[in-house]
Every structure is written in C-alpha cells, then in structure tokens.
Design brief:
By secondary structure, the chain is of the alpha/beta class. About 35% of the residues lie in helices and about 25% in strands.
C-alpha cells in the first residue's frame, strides 16, 4: 500500500500546474495533500489559488534578506508541515546549497523545455527562444533540484511538437498541458518509491522492484 504523500509548493506566479495536482487529488487519483503554498511575491495568484481550495498560503517577504535567511524561513515552514516532496512551480528564486542539501532528491522543478536545451530561462522567454531557434520539438522537464540552475537529475520529460504557425502563447499552452501530465507522473513515481538517483541519471524502477513506500 502506497502511503499518502505531503506536498509543499513554492511558486512566484499563477501556479497553473498546481491546479492539475489539486484536481487529481479531488478526483481520488492521487493520494496526496498540498499542505502549504509559499511565495516570494505577495500578489502571486498561486497564493489565491491555494486559499480558494482551503490550502494554507504563505507569503515570505524577501526584503533585504540573504538567500540563506530566506531559504531558512521556507525550510522552517516545510519542516513544521512534515513535507515529503517540494515542488517548484514557476518559482523565481534560486535555492541555496543548504536548502538543496537538506532536501536532497526531494525537490522537483518544472521547466518548460526539454533540458538541457533552453535551460536558465523562464516562462514565455523560453518558448520565444525555442521558436527563434526553429526547433521542431520542445516539451517540458521535471527534474530534481541540485546546486546548478536547471541542471539536476531528470525525472520525467514530455515532448511537444511545434506547428508551422506556432506562437509563443499557443506553444506555452501546449507545454503547460504536458507539464500537468508530467508533474503528476513524477509525483506518483516518487510516492511509489520508484526513483533511484545515480549521479546525473534517475532510474525508474518497475512495480515489482519497489516496496511502495513514501520517500525518495
């Protein structure tokens, strides 16, 4: 039996992918709970989205805090909530080494390209770069967070084909649909204990090779 998993979400924008997680939980297809949503932006719609679904929403004022000070405030909340897996959904901050070490292989980031291609950018800037380069296939990547930017071990990737008349907005919509599918898949693999990280590679175990325990 797979144990219920406690999720924490860090987001600086709308938290669109989080809605897919909320929907899966409400439909009974994902045995999980989002315990808290934390943002560094007071007006982030992700906070309002959380409140509308009865999820605790926390704004942390970055102010003149160092990255370490800010991260420690976030970690304090996550520890109080006994979070099993942290999800970065359009989180516009770089996580420091202390945070990464504390939650090694327990932080996943959603990136709107097929890494390592088009790493380092955010949101529409990534899709614009993809179109400007004339590539035919893009997609999304869910990866574990390490000390590098968009360079951690890859868990799940979903490919998206690019149409001849594709725009930044139409491509963003396609990729976001792939992100929603990918993040749910990644959460379930983590929950089922099927992810094994070996250097830069993430091995996905088959059902019979795992004890179905929560944790990574």
């Amino acid at each position: 039996m797979v144990a219920k998993i406690k999720l924490g979400v860090l987001s600086s924008t709308r938290g669109t992918d989080m809605q897919a997680i909320i929907d899966e939980i409400k439909a009974g297809r994902l045995d999980a709970s989002i315990e808290v949503v934390i943002s560094n932006r007071k007006d982030a719609y992700a906070l309002e989205r959380a409140r509308r679904h009865g999820i605790e929403a926390v704004f942390i004022e970055p102010g003149d805090k160092s990255r370490e000070e800010f991260d420690r405030e976030v970690m304090k909340i996550l520890k109080e909530k006994n979070i099993d897996l942290i999800l970065l959904i359009a989180y516009m901050r770089i996580i420091g080494p202390e945070f990464v070490s504390e939650y090694k292989n327990k932080i996943m980031n959603v990136h709107p390209s097929l890494l390592p291609a088009f790493g380092g950018g955010i949101d529409k800037g990534v899709h614009r770069a993809v179109l400007n380069h004339g590539v035919k296939i893009t997609g999304c990547t869910i990866h574990f967070v390490d000390e590098t930017v968009d360079g951690g071990p890859i868990v799940v990737q979903k490919a998206v084909s690019i149409g001849e008349d594709e725009t930044v907005d139409s491509l963003k919509e396609k990729v976001q649909n792939a992100e929603k599918e990918g993040i749910i898949e990644a959460i379930k693999l983590f929950q089922e204990g099927r992810l094994r990280v070996n250097g830069r590679r993430v091995r996905i175990l088959s059902d019979e090779n795992t004890g179905h325990s929560s944790g990574g």
